[in-house]
Amino acid sequence: MVTRHFFDKELDDLHLDLIKMGSLVEESIENTILALKKQDVELARKIFKNDDVIDDMESKIERNCFNLIARQSPLAKDLRTISTALKIITDMERIADHSADIAEITIRMANEKYIKPLIDIPKMAELAKIMVNKSIDAYIRQDVELAQKVCDSDDEVDDLFHKIILELTNIMKNDPQTIEQATNFMFIAKYLERMADHATNISEWVVYNVTGEHEHLTRHMDHRDDRIHNPFIIDEDSEK
């Protein structure tokens, strides 16, 4: 009984660390878009520093998960909970990486007049931030229904992404001088779309944690096939 009490306490600490990491990731998304909108180079640079903090948190949580497995030898549901946490922190770390990617582009475009008002890109970022928040909440509450709602939100992000790409493509066709900046905005939109995908991944792992079954809950296109039609697919295997 005493051993179980300490194990439950360590699981609670793990959940708290996940919440803290999730909050940092949400803040990173928010600051990324704020820096982009205001062309704020200093804030963009701050995002790089925060990315290091998030990386450190990922390493800390990972160590704690492995220590729990080694010392407590958890079985069944407990083991799934720890394994799910390991998957979740990987997705959160990649979301933070994409914030840093956008910050890098922001710095590159800091002295340029934007070719269009930023309307749908901030909408995508806000949706992605909300999805991250709800996916972590679903993990803490073990809420399959909330996890499904997060996955359903991914369609709205995808719709905005395709709308942005179409609009930018038309701008480039009408004015070839906009190609470089429009391409940068396309990459920003793609990074935001990938953030939403990672939030969806987190929710799918929540469902796995509760049910023991891992299923794809959205109508994701196969990125390998999508690459043929869309040159702005982010290959994450080559990011690391």
General description of the model:
The structure is a single chain. The chain is 81% helix and 0% strand. It contains 7 helices and no strands. The longest helix has 37 residues, at 2-38. Helix 1 (2-38) packs parallel to helix 3 and helix 4 (120-141) runs antiparallel to helix 5. 35% of the residues are buried. It has one domain: Methane Monooxygenase Hydroxylase, Chain G, domain 1 (Up-down Bundle), CATH 1.20.58.220. With 240 residues, it is an all-alpha fold. Residues 219-234 have low confidence and may be disordered. The termini are far apart.
Give the SSE map.
Layout: H1 2-38, H2 41-72, H3 76-108, H4 120-141, H5 144-174, H6 179-211, H7 223-229
Helix pairs in contact: 1-2, 1-3, 1-4, 2-3, 3-6, 4-5, 4-6, 5-6
Q: What's this model, at a glance?
A:
The protein is mostly helical and 240 residues long.
